[in-house]
Write a structure and sequence with these properties.
Chain lengths: 127, 223
């Protein structure tokens, strides 16, 4: 049965970018994220934040959290500094009220700005 | 005006010895939204200051340490070099000796800070540093201690109206965190977003202004 619209909890979607030495898979990131939140805010805090990784492609991702817990989620993301022994840094690109908004405003715009690695290499070789 | 629409600075960056590292640090800081960094011992490791992105500033900082008697001489040695002088506050005697000299700029994360030391810092216009990196890189008991220290220091900083400085203290380009993340981390020990933004923008700018050759004293300028 669906939750009544008035009782539905408001969400926020954080678009983020991972800067890491090695590629991190979805499972490792989810585990590290939950660890970080639980260590910082405990189990009660984690249940209030209610984090969920909506999408992740190895570099960019979207994380869902409760509307009034965005600051805590940011702090927990900032505390992730190592995954599988490799150094990691997570940069939040922006926060949106919808997955579509987060994707279009923060991730797709960045992808358009960044040149494709193959093209960049080709140009470099031509010169 | 939005709160985070300012120029942000990190005044305590540790550069490794290899020469290519500066470019990596600068590009990481630029990507994370910083307008400038102060690197420790920048002038002394032969780095090239010309290869910087437009609008990005690079400053030199020095971490002064040692016994209380030597610390005063060290600070005097660097007073006219234009370097930003930073002391780490581990020992109470060292903190006192550092705060008694007027030329110190930042006292970073003092462990045993009290009202007497706060008054000294206030009289000599020394900013109190908060190291966000210690929250990121420690876990468990160590992090609890760090957060407790920062919470206490924040109380003294508010009571004695001390200037506050936030730094990630990066040892590698992966240690940078964007200003919004730094403010969120500062919120963990009770710092308000406005205070955090000032600690990364207006206070570092004020310290940099005081270090410029044109600066003589507060309220005096050459016309």
């Amino acid at each position: 049965m669906k939750t009544m619209p008035t009782l539905r909890e408001k969400k926020r979607y954080l678009a983020f970018k991972i800067i890491s030495e090695e590629t991190i898979n979805r499972r490792e990131l989810t585990g590290e994220l939950l660890d970080s939140i639980c260590l910082l805010f405990g189990d009660t805090g984690a249940s209030e934040i209610n984090p969920s990784l909506m999408s992740y492609d190895g570099r960019y991702g979207i994380l869902r959290c409760q509307k009034d817990r965005t600051s805590e989620t940011r702090a927990a993301l900032a505390c992730i500094n190592k995954v599988r022994g490799g150094r990691v840094s997570i940069m939040v690109l922006g926060i949106s009220g919808t997955v579509k908004g987060a994707m279009e405003k923060f991730i797709q715009q960045r992808l358009v700005k960044e040149p494709e690695p193959d093209k960049e290499l080709q140009e470099h070789l031509n010169h | 005006m939005p709160l985070f629409n300012a120029k942000f600075f990190d005044l305590m960056v540790h550069l490794p010895d290899d020469k290519g590292s500066l470019a990596q640090f600068v590009s990481a800081a630029d990507e994370f939204g910083y307008s400038g960094i102060a690197a420790l011992d920048l002038k002394y490791n032969g780095t090239d200051m010309d290869q910087l992105p437009s609008g990005f500033s690079l400053f030199s900082a020095v971490e002064v340490s040692g016994k209380p008697s030597r610390l005063r001489d060290e600070i005097k040695k660097y007073k006219d070099t234009g370097d930003i002088l930073i002391t780490r506050g581990r020992d109470e005697e060292v903190i006192r000796a550092a705060l008694e000299t007027q030329r110190l700029d930042i006292l970073l994360q003092p462990v045993k800070f009290n009202n007497v030391l706060s008054k000294l810092a206030s009289d000599n216009s020394i900013a109190l540093g908060f190291n966000i990196g210690s929250i990121i890189h420690t876990r468990g008991d160590d992090r609890i201690m760090e957060l407790r220290t920062m919470r206490t220091n924040l109380k003294y900083a508010r009571k004695y109206e001390l200037q506050m400085v936030l730094t990630c203290e990066p040892y590698s380009p992966y240690d940078f965190r964007s200003p919004r993340e730094a403010a969120a981390l500062a919120g963990l020990f009770g710092m308000r977003p406005k205070e955090a933004v000032d600690a990364m923008s207006s206070v570092p700018l004020d310290i940099i202004r005081k270090k410029s050759p044109e600066y003589i004293q507060e309220g005096i300028e050459i016309i």
